[in-house]
Design brief:
Keywords: Signal. This is Basic membrane protein A. InterPro entries: ABC-Purine-Binding (IPR052910), PnrA-like (IPR003760). One of its GO terms (cellular component) is plasma membrane. By secondary structure, this protein is of the alpha/beta class. Helix content is 43%, strand content 18%. It is built from twelve helices and 15 strands. The N terminus is likely disordered. The protein has a seven-stranded mixed sheet with strand order 12-10-9-8-6-7-15, with helices on both faces. It starts with a helix and ends with a strand.
């Protein structure tokens, strides 16, 4: 029995030793060559899920609520075009006051790693330039201003072209020869628009005048509507505006007279009054700018001022009350502007006092247009 036990122990030890030898031999046989290791690493790398690229973060800063149906609403329509782009994430801050509040909002976006920030009101210019100096790796775009930096450009549209066309319509439709204009701020942008509108009015109707009331607000629906009512009380039978709300349109509708909107098609607010509107189309420009930032071709320090030839500005569809001959006249003038013939401020043009301010055959430079601080003949109102 003892011999049998020793025999079994010996057999088990030999079997274990043979297993160890087999294991060592197996490891050596399966040892990967350098080529095999490289192939295995490449296969594992291909099989691993690719890291998703960070989305391009784009911010928009608005001076009024998106629901203003006007200026900020038109910019937000452009933002929505950008938001549909693959690999792009957008954020909008609305109803931001010009001055320190806008500086805080713009800086907060830059601090959070936004790649591109659009500041869309004139009063955002200095705050944006200040923040741009603090965040040189962020790209900034300011609407309607004139200052730039290495990482900040500005942009705007030649809205005066659309204003001129809507003036043609207003001048053709007035019976009293008194047209009211509810105006926001006494800055060149607004003054330029009033002048272009008046030139269109008097091209269609040399006897008509444009009465201006200043509100000194961008967005105050109640005040803007009251201003329009004061013009209606003075005998105006067409109301135009450079305001963000449809308040003036609603006043015209309630009085049974005509109106010309601004920023967006405001026909739904005054279906019986609305003749047309000077409107923005920001989508194509915003999309192009985002693509440039993404591919590295965007440049700071530039100024972009585009007109009807770039489809940035347009006029809304005519109201059904606008006669066919007026439509034909306006479309012919629009075709000239779309073709690049910017004739709106071509002289001779007289100022309010009847003296020539732009000589015959002359056209103001962009710098002169951007700094315009006088009214043309036919405007009833003053600039402080």
């Amino acid at each position: 029995m003892q011999k049998m036990w020793k025999f079994l122990v010996t057999v088990l030890m030999l079997a274990a030793f043979a297993g160890v030898l087999a294991g060592c031999g197996g490891d050596k046989a399966e040892e990967a060559t350098p080529e095999a290791s490289k192939e295995q690493a490449e296969a594992e790398e291909q099989a691993a899920p690719a890291e998703e690229a960070e989305p391009l973060k784009v911010g928009f800063v608005y001076v009024s609520p998106i629901g203003d149906a006007g200026y900020s609403y038109s910019h937000d329509l452009g933002r929505q075009v950008v938001d549909q782009m693959e690999g792009v994430e957008t954020t909008a801050a609305e109803n931001v006051a010009e001055g320190p509040d806008s500086e805080r909002v713009i800086r907060n976006m830059a601090r959070k790693g936004f790649d591109l920030i659009f500041a869309t009101s004139f009063g955002f210019m200095d705050p944006m330039i200040k923040v741009a100096g603090e965040y040189p790796d962020v790209n900034f775009m300011h609407c309607s201003g004139f200052k730039t930096a290495d990482n900040a450009s500005n942009y705007f549209g030649r809205m005066y072209q659309a204003r001129y066309l809507t003036g043609l319509v207003a001048g053709s439709m007035t019976s009293s020869n008194e047209i009211g204009y509810v105006a926001a701020m006494q800055i060149p942008e607004v003054i330029r628009g009033i002048n272009a509108f008046t030139l269109g009015v008097r091209k269609a109707n040399p006897d008509a005048v444009v009465r201006v009331v200043w509100t000194n607000t961008w967005y105050d629906p109640v005040l803007e509507k009251d201003a329009a009512i004061s013009l209606l009380d003075a005998g105006c039978d067409v109301i135009a505006q450079h305001q963000d709300s449809p308040g003036p349109q609603e006043a015209a509708e309630e009085r049974g007279v005509y109106s010309v909107g601004y920023n967006s098609d405001m026909a739904s607010f005054a279906p019986k009054a609305h003749l047309t509107a000077a409107i923005w189309n920001w989508g194509p420009f915003y999309k192009e700018t985002v693509e440039q930032v993404r591919d590295g071709s965007w440049q700071g320090g530039e100024s972009h001022w585009m007109g009807m030839e770039k489809d940035i500005v347009e006029i809304a569809p005519f109201g059904e009350m606008v006669p066919e001959d007026v439509r034909t006249m306006v479309e012919a003038q629009k075709a000239e502007l779309v073709a690049g013939n910017d004739f709106v401020f071509q002289g001779p043009i007289k100022g309010q006092d009847g003296e020539i301010v732009i000589a015959e055959g002359e056209t103001p430079s962009d710098a002169e247009l951007l700094g315009m601080k006088f009214f043309v003949e036919g405007v009833v109102g003053s600039i402080d």
